[in-house]
């Protein structure tokens, strides 16, 4: 429980300290000091830690010069030249001495063990791009943390509208963000990816992207369907590139929302090159690739100690022997580890035959995971020899990921929580 603070003494004047290149002294080297140092380093302060011992993480910051460690107990005068101080030892007497020195020197000091005796309170803070959210909880840090987290969650998913950040001044060049949306479940997109979508003026989305995120966008956001259906309708890559560049040059914030990771068979680099050639600023937000995530969601690790030391991810959109294929199937068949095949439902029989032909045991375990991360996810287990037959009898359709190797036998099916 937080120590109660009288309403009169609990009134604070919220202010953002600009501590870059300014000396800050933290007395104490434990977990509390560790947390405070992390925020101070993010503010680019020159941090000195005074403590006989520090956590391993803090010690790791000493050699590269990220912080200075005075390896002894606190002594009067340690705050000389400081703009800000933190008293974070486990000894109230030491913390009191630090706070007293700070008060005499007119240095604001956060005393970790006694909020009522502190001249400054550290708010619960969080960052959303260049926006900093700081919350004081009236003396209750847990209350402040809860409100901060709620605001950040709303900013991330768009339920708290940051309309000013989305506004683009007339005549100013726009930008493009390539966002990897993960395997399909909107909860598996990265925080930065959700931020980019929430701030977009235009979203160019694939059918494998987490499309439910689009429902929360304001009506003035333009959503463009750039799906590429297997053996079916698709928007030409050149047209997608032109859309990204045209909308960005019109001053829009454009998000290219893809399934998985944009650089894992996502043609993301082609889009980056188009933007760079047109002078459009472009950012890449990596995504959770289906090649690893979908097997994991089915309880299948792509590596396992003592069983496999390598895994390879292969595009199966072209069958072995196709003149445009760049895959050396004979080399892949000789590997002892895990093979993960993406976009390989139609070509699976031919790929399985090639792996067997080039030396892989026909009895090698295989798992096919369909609709990975979605409520309809299912896993079908077989062998390389049995794969062609099971595809037909189980009515396997894209999107599906299939995995070859002994790791398939490690765990039973796992149902997503």
UniProtKB/TrEMBL annotation:
<dbReference type="GO" id="GO:0019354">
    <property type="term" value="P:siroheme biosynthetic process"/>
</dbReference>
<dbReference type="GO" id="GO:0051287">
    <property type="term" value="F:NAD binding"/>
</dbReference>
<dbReference type="InterPro" id="IPR006366">
    <property type="entry name" value="CobA/CysG_C"/>
</dbReference>
<keyword id="KW-0560">Oxidoreductase</keyword>
<feature type="active site" description="Proton donor">
    <location>
        <position position="228"/>
    </location>
</feature>
<dbReference type="InterPro" id="IPR014776">
    <property type="entry name" value="4pyrrole_Mease_sub2"/>
</dbReference>
<dbReference type="InterPro" id="IPR000878">
    <property type="entry name" value="4pyrrol_Mease"/>
</dbReference>
<dbReference type="InterPro" id="IPR012409">
    <property type="entry name" value="Sirohaem_synth"/>
</dbReference>
<dbReference type="InterPro" id="IPR035996">
    <property type="entry name" value="4pyrrol_Methylase_sf"/>
</dbReference>
<feature type="active site" description="Proton acceptor">
    <location>
        <position position="206"/>
    </location>
</feature>
<dbReference type="GO" id="GO:0051266">
    <property type="term" value="F:sirohydrochlorin ferrochelatase activity"/>
</dbReference>
<protein>
    <submittedName>
        <fullName>Uroporphyrinogen-III C-methyltransferase</fullName>
    </submittedName>
</protein>
<feature type="domain" description="Tetrapyrrole methylase">
    <location>
        <begin position="176"/>
        <end position="387"/>
    </location>
</feature>
<comment type="pathway">
    <text>Porphyrin-containing compound metabolism; siroheme biosynthesis; sirohydrochlorin from precorrin-2: step 1/1.</text>
</comment>
<dbReference type="GO" id="GO:0043115">
    <property type="term" value="F:precorrin-2 dehydrogenase activity"/>
</dbReference>
<dbReference type="GO" id="GO:0009236">
    <property type="term" value="P:cobalamin biosynthetic process"/>
</dbReference>
<dbReference type="GO" id="GO:0032259">
    <property type="term" value="P:methylation"/>
</dbReference>
<keyword id="KW-0489">Methyltransferase</keyword>
<dbReference type="InterPro" id="IPR050161">
    <property type="entry name" value="Siro_Cobalamin_biosynth"/>
</dbReference>
<keyword id="KW-0511">Multifunctional enzyme</keyword>
<dbReference type="InterPro" id="IPR036291">
    <property type="entry name" value="NAD(P)-bd_dom_sf"/>
</dbReference>
<dbReference type="Pfam" id="PF00590">
    <property type="entry name" value="TP_methylase"/>
</dbReference>
<dbReference type="Pfam" id="PF13241">
    <property type="entry name" value="NAD_binding_7"/>
</dbReference>
<dbReference type="GO" id="GO:0004851">
    <property type="term" value="F:uroporphyrin-III C-methyltransferase activity"/>
</dbReference>
<keyword id="KW-0520">NAD</keyword>
<keyword id="KW-0808">Transferase</keyword>
<keyword id="KW-0169">Cobalamin biosynthesis</keyword>
<keyword id="KW-0627">Porphyrin biosynthesis</keyword>
<dbReference type="InterPro" id="IPR014777">
    <property type="entry name" value="4pyrrole_Mease_sub1"/>
</dbReference>
<keyword id="KW-0949">S-adenosyl-L-methionine</keyword>
<dbReference type="InterPro" id="IPR006367">
    <property type="entry name" value="Sirohaem_synthase_N"/>
</dbReference>
<keyword id="KW-0456">Lyase</keyword>
């Amino acid at each position: 429980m937080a120590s109660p603070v009288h309403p009169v003494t609990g009134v604070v004047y919220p202010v953002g300290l600009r501590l870059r290149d300014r000396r800050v002294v933290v007395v104490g080297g434990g977990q509390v000091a560790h947390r405070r140092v992390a925020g101070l380093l993010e503010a680019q302060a020159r941090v000195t830690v005074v403590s006989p011992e520090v956590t391993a993480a803090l010690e790791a910051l000493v050699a590269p010069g990220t912080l200075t460690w005075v390896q002894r107990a606190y002594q009067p005068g340690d705050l000389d030249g400081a703009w800000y101080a933190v008293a974070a030892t486990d000894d109230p007497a030491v913390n009191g001495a630090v706070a007293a020195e700070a008060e005499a020197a007119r240095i604001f000091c956060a005393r970790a063990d006694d909020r009522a005796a502190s001249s400054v309170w550290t708010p619960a803070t969080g960052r959303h791009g260049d926006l900093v959210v700081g919350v004081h909880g009236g003396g209750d840090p847990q209350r402040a943390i809860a409100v901060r987290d709620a605001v950040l969650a709303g900013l991330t998913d768009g339920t708290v509208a940051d309309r000013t950040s989305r506004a683009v001044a007339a005549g100013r060049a726009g930008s493009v963000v390539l966002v990897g949306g993960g395997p399909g479940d909107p909860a598996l997109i990265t925080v930065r990816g959700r931020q980019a979508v929430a701030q977009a003026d235009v979203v160019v989305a694939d059918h494998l992207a987490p499309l439910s995120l689009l429902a929360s966008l304001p009506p003035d956001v333009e959503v463009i369907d750039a799906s590429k259906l297997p053996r079916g309708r698709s928007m030409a890559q050149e047209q997608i590139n032109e859309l990204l560049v045209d909308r960005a040059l019109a001053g829009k914030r454009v998000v290219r929302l893809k399934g998985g990771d944009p650089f894992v068979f996502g043609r993301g680099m082609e889009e980056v090159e188009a933007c760079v050639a047109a002078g459009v600023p472009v950012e890449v937000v990596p995504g959770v690739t289906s090649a690893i995530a979908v097997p994991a969601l089915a309880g299948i690790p792509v590596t396992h100690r003592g069983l496999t030391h390598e895994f390879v991810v292969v595009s199966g959109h072209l069958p072995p022997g196709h003149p445009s294929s760049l895959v050396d199937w004979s080399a892949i068949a000789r590997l002892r580890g895990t093979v993960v095949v993406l976009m390989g439902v139609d070509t699976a029989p031919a790929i399985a035959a090639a792996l067997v032909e080039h030396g892989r045991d026909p009895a090698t375990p295989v798992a096919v995971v369909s609709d990975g991360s979605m409520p309809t996810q299912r896993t079908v287990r077989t062998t390389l020899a049995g794969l062609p037959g099971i595809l037909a009898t189980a009515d396997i359709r894209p999107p599906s990921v299939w995995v070859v190797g002994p790791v398939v036998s490690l765990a039973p099916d796992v149902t997503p929580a």
